[in-house]
Write a structure and sequence with these properties.
Chains A, B: GO terms for molecular function: ATP binding; metal ion binding; phosphoribosylaminoimidazole carboxylase activity. Chain A has 610 residues and is α/β, with parallel strands linked by helices. Chain A has four domains: 93 residues, Rossmann fold (3-Layer(aba) Sandwich), CATH 3.40.50.20; 65 residues, ATP-grasp fold, A domain (Dna Ligase, domain 1), CATH 3.30.1490; 217 residues, D-amino Acid Aminotransferase, Chain A, domain 1, CATH 3.30.470.20; 129 residues, Rossmann fold (3-Layer(aba) Sandwich). Chain A is built from 22 helices and 23 strands. In chain A, strands 10, 11, 12, 13, 14, 15, 16, 17 and 18 form a nine-stranded antiparallel beta sheet that branches. In chain A, β4, α4 and β5 form a beta-alpha-beta unit. In chain A, α1 packs across α11, α4 runs antiparallel to α5 and α20 crosses α21. The radius of gyration of chain A is 29 Å and the shape is globular. About 3% of the residues of chain A have low confidence.
């Protein structure tokens, strides 16, 4: 873009996706890693410069922890960065001090603090950032762990301070009897350790934060991360929670944490959400992060491009989601190629299945071999709602389970393996009134009413939503008998992913208006006809809202129209529902035209002659 | 993905973006083009294979019209494709016939037909695809053009049959006096020509269509293309038109046209929209196309990935938009580097400005030099509405105009050139009631009423929308006095990009219901109080809609609530409006709390003591 060249320590998948972003802005990237076919080098041809004495490529072939190679790379670039924090940070400081490069981002001092998890925790604690309680383990080892156990109780986490990632270097000490095995597993005294209070979290949350050299921080939406065997397995964006403050709080804590570090770049902040709604930071990575892969397809600027912009001191890009919902599934090597000749084929099964899934984008990293647990690729799914993303994810998850079983049972994949998993083969909504009908895991519409006596009037709404395949929930919320439940329902609605609330009420009919007063979402009111006044009482109670808080009121007892209105509201932004509603209207027109035909054929008295 | 290698004739920007898509799926691509630093080769490092005798790279260095080089490439790959149609199609047929590759897509026969525009038109006409009237020009040249003029009148288009693109090879013959100059300009008899009836189009439309080897065709949304000096300048997706059939018709015609060709791949179909709403095909490109660049950021699968999938006979990806609105701006070289040392800097000005624009993604192609008119890059903008995209595009267009003027006046760019163009420096909504307030070019909400006598009741709705910065339009539509206008308004609403209609009506109050009967969008009804019955007549007329067609009814005369409901409807899908509505509600709460404070301080009679 402006002629500057960036050097990266490491050329794996993070480097590869960084190179992709840099190529788009025509920023030249030189990589330091062993071999010429590492993932990032594959997509970045650096032609031989005849005037230099270097060979084929201007990349540097060698280990990113080799001090001489770091110097070699530094001499060829303007700015140095890393795709991994386990680098020789002291050497990075030296090349910076010697003026071999104009800048190193993240700062070597930041890398030094972060790569020692104990130092990282001390740093965060000093800055009043919430972390789990922790204690150092001294050379007495077992005795020191016992001291920690006296403070924290069991289970406690024993952790290696350095070179720990993807769960490697962690040990859960469940009782005093585990201590010696734990110490042994973590290097038997060769590596420095620390102890951490066990965090009985309810969810794992991550936030990517980009920091400019001048200290501006911008966070991406909070996401939920699902780990399996300590490795990131699935990511859901954005994080849903019944308390709308939780996602915002996660971003605020992540921004505060990243603001404490100098230098520029992107940071991945992993957190635990505790049962009481509190958030504590687990760890921070000073680089693009697995939990931020989804940003490539789902956000206005990807984590990789924002890292590039940050380290080049260009304006930071927008971190907003550009789609309503996204998920990311990691493709981890299912087996070693030496043990299972089909290891790669089985690992890639979800990738092949993904080609049939709308909104799925597959990234394969071009890694040479296949090892169990190795990150081989990932699949991002975007959609117009959580429900759509969840449905699109299902065939991928099922094919992954299938491939995993094929590895475990040492069976080859059947030739129709891909065809077995498609969107159409995943079950649609049940035709019976099963719980799945009205307790969808990712509802867009909530139908509520004050009492089960309103059910006969409100059920047609549920039937319509089912007919249009709209994910919804149906429950009882009474304004007068459960005011706290109503408040909780209304306040949590947007954070849970709801987009419309339909509320039915009779008589004094306060429910729709009181829900509308406590949520920013559109609320549709259905006046339910009581035994007196023909429902006019409910109608006026619902429609005559004061200026400031609207309720979208439909005809008395007409919950059908409430559901149709809810679908029209979804249709305002989702062409799928717009087309379905247009079709519904066309069908109604045709039904009437059939009756026109019938009447003209059979005569005006055809009804009485039936 | 499955070990197959693709060869591409040409390695420019289209090849570059194709390589990007292929890398993501780990499909190896070898390129045939001159030089080692062409745009596509830069992002695709093919390491030297020590066992072969070829040099540094496995790409082929040479012209894509060199038959020997085509053979050389064919021998190294499984499937051949092109990034440009001006290739040696006969040679492609030969390498296919000789079994040097498993497949060539698009088919050489398709390329042959398409690269001769006259043959292309004959082909389309034979398949009943609408095209402008055309006639061949024989060797008599001027006489033959005169014959064509007798059929078509003046002006007429004189076109070169081959090697014509970006307006090169076209000549507008305005009168008989132009003929000899036109013939001279188009090769003076060395190139074959044909004549076409002048098409006084109102818009240029393009549709990308992907075709699988088995003949499945899938079209992307129709887009509007703006050409300047015959080169694509800006693209807007999706195409908006008051007649919802036009975009669908454009897709249908494009799909029909592409279905007539054998083989697989992506096709760009350029069309003219005529004053009567008819669409005729201008030309077809058998490859990724400038009008489809927006698909990278805006669609579920990009045109490049779908081209790859098609030619490898993998399942086609979804062509749906994943964002509500997008635009693309080409970065064409503003001057030759030899004539203006700042040519590149000036050309890239909008790229630098784009870094400050949310939703903008910049692609720079890494071309070595800068020539006037050369495609150097492009910027795609996505947003939650046409209005948002248009607003984000504005600083880019202005900076482009500024850079163009700097070239024309041969002035250097000022040092603050980038800073001059930002979203915040573009004017917001005018504070006076200017036309821009209620005749927004890209409205999301339409406010209508039966008569200007309803204006006093309906204006608060406009004020609220203005306060929330929601693009809207306000006009008079009467159900009883202008039923045709009402029908037109309702039917065109979704195709014009509207998401909500607010309709105010008094007395019999048919307008909201009759609009709702003719659009699938949500319609909000405001009962306007008349001189009798206190507005209850209007309320009942609006709210008591029959099953099937809902109207969201608000309180009598309460157009404020209608606008707030409209914003809540937008908020259901756009977090920006959700946050604004929550803020509005918080502010209302605070206002009341201030009064609570005041009353408790001043006593219950403070109002009367004022």
């Amino acid at each position: 873009m402006d002629g500057r060249t960036v050097g990266v320590l490491g050329a794996g998948q993070l480097g590869r996706m960084f190179v992709e972003a840099a190529s788009r802005l025509n920023v030249k990237v030189l990589l330091l890693d062993s071999g010429t076919v590492s993932p990032a080098k594959q997509i970045n041809y650096q032609p031989h410069d005849p005037s230099s004495s270097t060979s084929i490529s201007q990349h540097v072939d060698g280990s990113f922890s080799d001090p001489d190679k770091i110097i070699e790379l530094a001499k060829r670039v303007d700015v140095l960065t890393v795709e991994i924090e386990h680098v020789d940070a002291m050497q990075l400081q030296r090349v910076l001090d010697q003026g071999l490069v104009k800048a190193v981002h993240p700062l070597p001092s930041t890398i030094l603090v972060i790569q020692d998890k104990y130092e990282q925790k001390i740093h965060l604690q000093l800055h009043n950032i919430p972390v789990a309680d922790f204690l150092p383990i001294d050379d007495s080892l077992a005795a020191s762990v016992q001291t920690a156990a006296e403070h924290f109780g069991y289970p406690l986490m024993l952790k290696s301070r350095t070179q720990a990632y993807d769960g490697k270097g962690n040990y859960v000490v469940k009782s005093e009897g585990d201590i010696s095995a734990a110490v042994q597993a973590l290097g038997g005294g060769k590596r420095k350790l620390y102890a951490e209070r066990w965090a009985p979290f309810v969810k794992e949350v991550a936030v990517m934060v980009v920091r400019s050299a001048s200290g501006i921080v911008r966070s991406y939406p909070a996401v939920e991360t699902i780990h399996k065997d300590n490795i990131c397995h699935t990511v859901f964006a954005p994080l849903r929670h019944s308390d709308a403050n939780v996602p915002e709080q996660a971003r605020a804590i992540a921004e505060m944490a990243v603001a404490t570090f100098g230098g520029a770049g992107i940071f991945g902040v992993e957190m635990f959400l505790m049962p009481d709604g509190a958030l504590i930071i687990n760890e921070i990575a000073p680089r693009p992060h697995n939990s931020g892969h989804y940003t490539i397809e789902a956000c206005e600027t990807s984590q990789y491009e924002n890292h590039l912009r940050a380290i080049l001191d260009l304006p930071l890009g927008s971190t907003a989601l550009k789609v309503p919902s996204a998920a990311m599934l990691n493709l981890l090597g299912l087996a070693d190629l030496e043990k299972d000749a089909e290891a790669l084929k089985k690992t890639y099964l979800p990738a092949h299945v993904s080609l049939g899934i709308p909104g799925a984008t597959t990234h394969l990293y071009g890694k040479a071999g296949c090892r169990k647990g190795r990150k081989m690729g990932h699949i991002t799914i975007v959609g117009q709602s959580d429900a759509e993303v969840a449905q699109r994810l299902l065939p991928l998850q099922r094919s992954l389970d299938f491939a995993t079983q094929a590895v475990e049972s040492n069976r080859p994949l059947p030739s129709d393996a891909v065809a077995r998993f498609s969107l159409s083969s995943t079950p649609g909504p049940a035709t019976s009134k099963s719980a799945a009908d009205f307790k969808h895991a990712h509802p867009l519409v909530g139908i509520i009413m004050g009492s089960d006596s309103d059910l006969p009037v409100m059920l047609p709404a549920a039937e319509i939503l089912k007919k249009f395949n709209v994910p919804f929930e149906l429950t009882i919320v009474s304004a007068h008998r459960t005011p706290d439940r109503m408040r909780e329902y209304a306040r949590s609605a947007p954070a849970r992913g709801l987009r419309v609330v339909i509320a039915g009420a009779g008589g004094a009919a306060h429910l729709p208006g009181m829900v509308a007063a406590q949520t920013a979402l559109p609320v549709i009111g259905v006046p339910v006809k009581g035994s007196t006044l023909d429902g006019v009482d409910s109608l006026h109670s619902i429609v005559q809202m004061p200026r400031g808080i609207p309720v979208a009121t439909v005809a008395i007892n007409n919950s059908t129209n409430a559901a149709l209105l809810a679908i029209r509201i979804l249709a305002a932004s989702d062409p799928k529902y717009l087309a379905a509603m247009q079709q519904y209207m066309d069908d109604m027109e045709n039904e009437v035209l059939v009756k026109v035909e019938k009447l003209s054929e059979l005569g005006w008295d055809y009804l009485s002659r039936k």
